[in-house]
Amino acid sequence: MKYLRFILHLFITFITLITKSYAQFSTSSLSSQCSSAVQTFLNSSEFNACFPYNKLTSQINSATSFQSIATSEKQLISVEDSVCSLPKCSDSLISNFNSTFQSKCSDDIAKNNTETMGIYDFIYVYSPFRDSFCLKNSTGGYCVIETLENIENAQIQGSYTNLSSKVLCTTCNKAIANTLLNYMKSHPPPSDLSTASTFLTTELNQTCGPSFLDGNVPLSATSAGVTIFDMSFAT
Ligand SMILES: *[C@@H]1O[C@H](CO)[C@@H](O)[C@H](O)[C@H]1NC(C)=O
Ligand SMILES: *[C@@H]1O[C@H](CO)[C@@H](O)[C@H](O)[C@H]1NC(C)=O
Ligand SMILES: *[C@@H]1O[C@H](CO)[C@@H](O)[C@H](O)[C@H]1NC(C)=O
Ligand SMILES: *[C@@H]1O[C@H](CO)[C@@H](O)[C@H](O)[C@H]1NC(C)=O
Ligand SMILES: *[C@@H]1O[C@H](CO)[C@@H](O)[C@H](O)[C@H]1NC(C)=O
Ligand SMILES: *[C@@H]1O[C@H](CO)[C@@H](O)[C@H](O)[C@H]1NC(C)=O
């Protein structure tokens, strides 16, 4: 179950950053220098060409509540479609944002507040997270949704026999876990994510066996074309 918490933590970090409206940023605990540098990046046409920040902000602001997005499968799929229909942001774009963030927000970073940690985690995790977030299963559904459905079904049926292995040891989760772990192997994570990743490794190794974490990613992330094609049939 720690693995699920890990995924949800990442997901929530991701969504939380998205939901910060510009107004919230300016009244937040960030210094004005940091806040304006972050806002400028999030609102830039370069970033919005590969991550639909402005679109998601209005989508989320117009939803009745954040809770309704997190619990509505239809709304989650719509968020997934918005993110996955765009090409992935280049490493250099994210790395430029990191440099700006490190220089304009150095005082904020030193204070360890949750807002700066969230931005830091976002920068760190963007690449493998974008890959995992857009993974699709053999029938064309998003893996993230499949896992959430599996958790729900397991809970509704009230049967906790082998719940962990049924929910955890799926092809989707193997693809997600190895995508994240392969990235973490080559990029040392910040300490909060490092702890979570140790739990993840131990839990999955015990529950699903050592071959689960062999580094293989058995599914591939969607390309922009495939998602647009899928969407035209879904609507
Ligand atoms: C975001 O960018 C658009 C133009 O690309 C601009 O009109 C708008 O004022 C910007 N918003 C903020 C909050 O910076
Ligand atoms: C910030 O967090 C780091 C690591 O968790 C810690 O070593 C440091 O003392 C913290 N700084 C402040 C100002 O809380
Ligand atoms: C961001 O910059 C810091 C400081 O230069 C560096 O330690 C970190 O690895 C960078 N993160 C990413 C994801 O590039
Ligand atoms: C694929 O994922 C969707 C949710 O995105 C799920 O409803 C469907 O059952 C999954 N297919 C398989 C074969 O598990
Ligand atoms: C639980 O899983 C183990 C190993 O995966 C299997 O041998 C056992 O038959 C399963 N038990 C039930 C009740 O499904
Ligand atoms: C999984 O567990 C086995 C035996 O307990 C251990 O040898 C192996 O190194 C572990 N693999 C990972 C990826 O942690």
Model description:
The protein has 235 residues and is mainly α. It has one domain. It is built from 15 helices and no strands. The chain has helices spanning 2-19, 22-26, 32-43, 45-48, 53-62, 66-71, 73-84, 91-104, 106-110, 114-133, 143-157, 163-168, 171-186, 191-208, 224-234. Helix 1 packs across helix 10 (114-133). The longest helix is centred in the middle third of the chain and has 20 residues, at 114-133. The radius of gyration is 18 Å and the shape is globular. The model is unreliable at 1-5 and 222-235 (pLDDT under 50). Bound molecules: 2-acetamido-2-deoxy-beta-D-glucopyranose (6 copies). One 2-acetamido-2-deoxy-beta-D-glucopyranose binds next to loops.
Largest sheet descriptor:
none
Number of strand segments = 0
Whole-number average pLDDT? 77
Strand content: under 5%
For the CA atoms, what is the radius of gyration?
Answer: 18 Å
Structural class: mainly alpha
Bound molecules: 2-acetamido-2-deoxy-beta-D-glucopyranose
Overall geometry comes to globular
Low-confidence stretches: 1-5, 222-235
Number of helices: 15
| Element-by-element helix/strand order | HHHHHHHHHHHHHHH
Give the distance, in angstroms, between the N- and C-terminal Cα atoms. Answer: 34 Å
**Share of helix among residues?**
over 70%
Give the count of structural domains. Answer: 1
Protein name: 26017_t:CDS:1
Keywords: Signal
InterPro entries: DUF7729 (IPR056146)
Pfam families: DUF7729
